[in-house]
Prior knowledge:
By secondary structure, the chain is an alpha+beta fold. It has 2 domains: 9-156, Fructose-1,6-Bisphosphatase, Chain A, domain 1 (2-Layer Sandwich), CATH 3.30.540.10; 165-267, 3-Layer(aba) Sandwich (D-Maltodextrin-Binding Protein, domain 2). Helices cover 31% and strands 31% of the residues. The protein has helices at 9-29, 48-64, 94-98, 178-191, 204-212, 226-238, 264-267, and strands at 37-41, 44-47, 69-72, 76-77, 84-92, 105-113, 126-135, 140-145, 151-152, 155-156, 169-174, 197-199, 218-225, 242-247, 253-259. Helix 5 packs parallel to helix 6. The site of calcium ion has 6 residues, from strand 5.
Amino acid sequence: MRIKNPINPAAALKASITAARAAGALIRRNFHTVKRTKQVTRHDIKLELDVRSQKLIEKALYSAFPSISFLGEESATGDLGAPYRWVVDPIDGTVNYTYGIPHACVSIALQGRAPTPKAADYEDGYQTLVGVIYDPFCDELWTALRGQPARLNGRITRVSSRRQLNDCIISIGFAKTPEHLAQTLPYFNQMVRRVRKIRMMGAAALGLTYVASGRFDAYIERGIRLWDIAAGGLILESAGGEFWHKAIAGEYTYRMIATNGRLRRQLAVPD
Ligand code: IPD
Ligand code: CA
């Protein structure tokens, strides 16, 4: 399908960077304040600041591109089957942030309907065109434009070249539901003996960028959501990595194996 009035990806990247930096500043400014919670469940917390960060991003992106729909973790607006949509996690790593752990980020992706089903990254026919992830605590900004190399703070960044599991640092994410926890624990138990180190950092989007920049060699999670992976998946692929994902039960929910492109078979992730 050819899209009428295509968006200029470079302009979308610029708007995403501006929005991500503004939201990052909000996150950093409020790091030491008492946080107002919106919702607390067994393994998750939602803050009033998640919503504030999303509103700020939505406003900034809307003023640059008023016709693009918006799928955020906190809410969505517009037609989500439209030719383009923003996919945004306004704070990824909210539990870290709430507990005063400075490891969280903002994730913004622009997705467009793929020209052919084969070219789509996601089952609903979309591909990610632009990805921006900003860590306001380390002032690290990862960017990717489809078809171009990934960058970290403006410099080209690449995955690691490690291919032996015993040299590798693997990150395993634990999503929020008891089913996903139960499915992941046996795998964790087995992998922890085979790799140099396992890490659980608590911000999935940063997990993907850490693989993209060769800090981790792989990142695995079951039950991850689209806003956690849309930008990071493109950044990882643009850095030479392999981003495998598959839709599972639940809206915008996936299994994901992200690697440096050399490890997927050895990782033997169960179905
Ligand atoms: C969560 C974090 C966490 C991951 C979860 C995500 P949130 O995102 O990225 O590391 O394990 O699957 O939902 O709630 O902090 O935006
Ligand atoms: Ca979030």
